[in-house]
Design goal:
The chain is α/β, with parallel strands linked by helices and 132 residues long. It has a single domain, classed as 2-Layer Sandwich (Nucleotidyltransferase, domain 5). Helix content is 41%, strand content 23%. The chain has four helices and five strands; from the N terminus they run βββαβαβαα. The protein has a five-stranded mixed β-sheet, sandwiched between helices. Helix 3 packs across helix 4. The chain is globular and about 35 Å long.
Length: 132
């Protein structure tokens, strides 16, 4: 099963991909100009990687959960796709991504940290949904 994961942000969308539910690779992030352009680009990536499932990071708990859930659900609704969508708690994924990068990515805001956060989100989802 090919799975694509998203770490949705207002400026960048981190992407990660698993071709088999075992290996998880970060992809090039999408620089977000507006929601329609970003949704179209996510759609292109989903088609290019033949994604069977979409896993989307969602902040669980905290004062902004309801607002973020609404925004994320709206964005997912812009995708022209019938693949199943799963939501995974993204709490701490950006901090963990920074720790994993350990300064190797520099200070550029090019989306590599966002895609590393998407990789962490997908790894968490796979671990929580392992068969057996």
């Amino acid at each position: 099963m090919a799975i694509l994961a998203l770490d949705l942000g207002l400026k960048r969308i981190g992407l990660a991909y698993s071709p088999d539910g075992q290996i998880v690779l970060p992809l090039e992030a999408i620089i977000r100009k507006n929601r329609h352009q970003a949704a179209a680009q996510v759609q292109q990536v989903m088609e290019a990687y033949r994604a069977d499932r979409l896993v989307v990071g969602l902040p669980i708990g905290g004062s902004s959960e309801e607002e973020m859930r609404r925004r994320i659900t709206h964005f997912v609704g812009l995708l022209e796709s019938s693949v199943p969508v799963a939501f995974q708690d993204e709490a701490g994924s950006s901090i963990e991504a920074q720790a994993r990068a350990a300064g190797r990515l520099g200070r550029k805001k090019d989306g590599r940290l966002d895609s590393l956060a998407a990789q962490i989100i997908l790894e968490r989802w796979l671990k929580a949904n392992q068969d057996g």
